[in-house]
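My current task is to audit a protein record that another person submitted. I need someone to confirm that the token line plausibly describes how this chain folds. Take the sequence as given and treat only the tokens as open to question. This is what I was given:
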Amino acid sequence: MKTRVISRSLAEREPYRIWNAYVDLLAIEGYEDLSNEQRPAHLVFWYESEVQNGGHMQYFENRGVRYLDETIAALGLLGAICQQDVLREAGAQFLGRARPRIKSAKQYSEIALQGEFSSFDSRFHACSPSLQQCLETHLARHQSLFVTLR
């Protein structure tokens, strides 16, 4: 199992380093390179990142639907029930019709402005706890799965 290693003394002096190491692992390592215990946090991290950056349309465009079911399950595992419901419904809508691959930023902008996923984006941002909070709680409970202190 891959983890990030930081010194215990550095973690004590600068506790944010644990979070940074966690995020580094989730962001840099591929899904296949993580253990089954690490994968849910990875999926939730990427869902959070994509939706915060460009909404559900960006999430589906960049991440696809290969891990959609696993991401929905991961949200529940991390206690993000509200976001789980949002993604379940947004995913059903996305899969509800054939979609051509977007080939340019201009085409993406034109489609995004139609607002097909805007209601899902609004619901996501209204959820509590936030995915940031869920990821923080998950790290606090399972730090040894992600960060090794030496």
